[in-house]
Amino acid sequence: MNPSGTVPTDLLANYDPGGFFDELFGGPGNPAEHTSAIRGRLSTFDFADLQRRAKDAERELYNLGITFLVYSDQDAVDRILPFDVIPRVISAREWAAVEAGVIQRVTALNLFLHDIYHDQKILKDGIIPADLVTGNQNFRPQMIGIDVPFDTYVHIMGVDLVRDGQGIFRVLEDNARVPSGVSYVVENRHMMMRAFPDLVSDIGIRPVDNYGVKLLEAMSEVAPADIQDPQVVLLSPGSYNSAYFEHIFLAREMGVPLVEGRDLVVRDDRVYMKTTNGLARVDTIYRRVDDAFLDPLAFRRDSHLGVPGIMEAYRKGNVTLANAIGTGVADDKAVYCYVPRMIKYYLDQDAIIPNVETNICREPDGLALTLDKLSELVVKPVGEAGGYGITIGPRATKAELEDCRAKLLADPSNYISQPMIPLSVCPTLVEEGIEPRHVDLRPFAITGRSTWVLPGGLSRVALRKGTLIVNSSQGGGSKDTWVLE
Predict the structure, then answer these.
(1) Secondary-structure percent of the chain, ordered helix, strand, coil, rounded to 5
(2) In angstroms, what CA-CA distances link 372 with 71, 365, 377, 418, 441?
(3) What is the rounded CA–CA span in Å between residue 114 and residue 118?
(4) Residue (of 214, 272, 263) closest to 236 by Cα position
(5) Which of 93, 405, 406, 417 is the most buried (most CB within 10 A)?
């Protein structure tokens, strides 16, 4: 008997992954034996009970204020990130490879950032085109020659992974500026613990609720060297930012003040926080404000979000900013293509997690191939995020393809193209039952003296049938990600 008092039928009996690699069942010749106990428990759930618990969970997420803002042309709409109650499960063996691959990638990107803001050897050796880096809109000449603690530039990193038809993880893109979404990872786990204790218990799932502790440890490690008990704060653009809930969440998890630019002031090249007891020195700032808005004296003069003079305090080593200024050049979609070469150049290793094959349209061969096979490729603008501006060739209309072709010819440097990866799917609760939906994965890494990776990460799910775009701004949701012991 199940909790609703009826005789259960096998909820997964008629599930068909549609030929895709499935996160819960595996693929041909590669069954997911590590999920057998979880599948067994899921199969005993009553569909109506599963729906009821899912609605209860979504209502609780909204009541807790776990929301994000979606901007349209006219409005900013407060929404919850839809939560699917069927977890994605990763074995200990698979996770060991993901974890090693993420650490390798973060290490190489930090070496790259130190290099391009100092000797620029990788550019002089021709491994990456110099103009792609120094001409990049996210390259900050103000950072040249500045040393940062432990040569760590990317303190918080999110790496977007997909799994292809053979079940191989591949890197889709890097997020080295302000990767968001970790609050959902932790809250999704809390929600599963409350709503599905009968599914979660005794499975052996690695915890995620120590993220705030690890983040505070790293922020304290990278404080200026002469500080014994560093004051850490989280700098937010304010309540109109789409990720404001996450800013509140992270400040609370770390136990540090959440501040805005108007709460900070620079005196004698040191940063202070305004308090009821006067000014209090600030040593490390986990900033969720973009470079351009961080200091009106150094960047955009019309910014009201930043702190005048903070760049000079940073340059003199009196405060640490995480992530460092100028990290955006490391997660540019065109620079991404060269990360495997960076790994080889700096570490003399092959990339543990391969990239998705990518054509760079600024290069004549890449542009020609993209134009020739436009209907087969996914074309992405390098300066966009959130899934905007993407043309999925195999699913585009003739008019959409012609529009894409015109944009490519007008500004080829703004685009890359990739083959359409048959993204893995995961069983997902929908109105009609349990159906496959495409997923990706964003593991989060924190780097102070060394790098730590949160077990699991954010699994985003494309809730619309057949779509490959998982972004929350375009109707995607999330799942709890279980890494097994």
Answers:
(1) 35, 25, 40
(2) 35, 10, 10, 13, 31
(3) 6
(4) 263
(5) 417
Rg (the chain; Cα; Å):
23
CA distance 459 to 169: 13
Burial 424-455 (b: 16+ CB within 10 A, else e): bbbbbbeeeebbbbbbbbbbbbbbbeebbbbb
Query: Quick one: pLDDT at residue 70?
Result: 58
Q: Which two structure tokens, joined as six digits, stand for 306?
A: 């930043």
Mean pLDDT rounded to a whole number for the chain: 91
Contact residues for 162 (Cβ-Cβ < 8 A; gap 6+): 169, 170, 172, 356, 421, 423, 424, 440, 441
Task: State yes or no: pLDDT of 9 exceeds 80.
Answer: no
> Angle formed by the axes of helices 47-63 and 182-195, to 10°?
130
Q: What letter would DSSP give residue 197?
A: H
- Give the CA distances from residue 251 to residues 207, 208, 275, in Å, rounded to whole numbers and listed in that order: 20, 16, 17
For 411-462, the pLDDT digits (tens) are: 998 899 999 899 999 999 998 889 999 999 999 999 999 999 999 999 999 9
pTM summary value: 0.92
Interatomic CA distance for residues 130 and 366, integer angstroms: 18
Q: How confident is the model at residue 73 (pLDDT cuts 50, 70, 90)?
A: very low
User: Considering only 60-74, 134-148, 464-478, which range has the smallest mean pLDDT?
Assistant: 60-74
Rounded Cα gap, residues 42 and 2, in angstroms: 11
Closest CA to 2 of 41, 52, 43, 46: 46
Give the burial class of 282: count Cβ atoms within 10 A of its Cβ; 0-12 exposed, 13-18 middle, 19 or more buried.
Answer: buried
Residue percentage of the chain with pLDDT more than 70: 93
Sign of the alpha-carbon dihedral angle for 97, 335, 180, 107: positive
| Amino acid making up residue 250 | L
Res 66: pLDDT: 73
Range in 265-279, 412-426, 469-483 the model is least confident about = 469-483
Residue 462 is encoded by which pair of tokens? 């494309």
CB atoms within 10 A of CB 74: 6
Which of helix, strand or coil describes residue 234?
A: strand
Angle between helices 182-195 and 244-254 (to 10 degrees): 80
3-state secondary structure of 345: helix
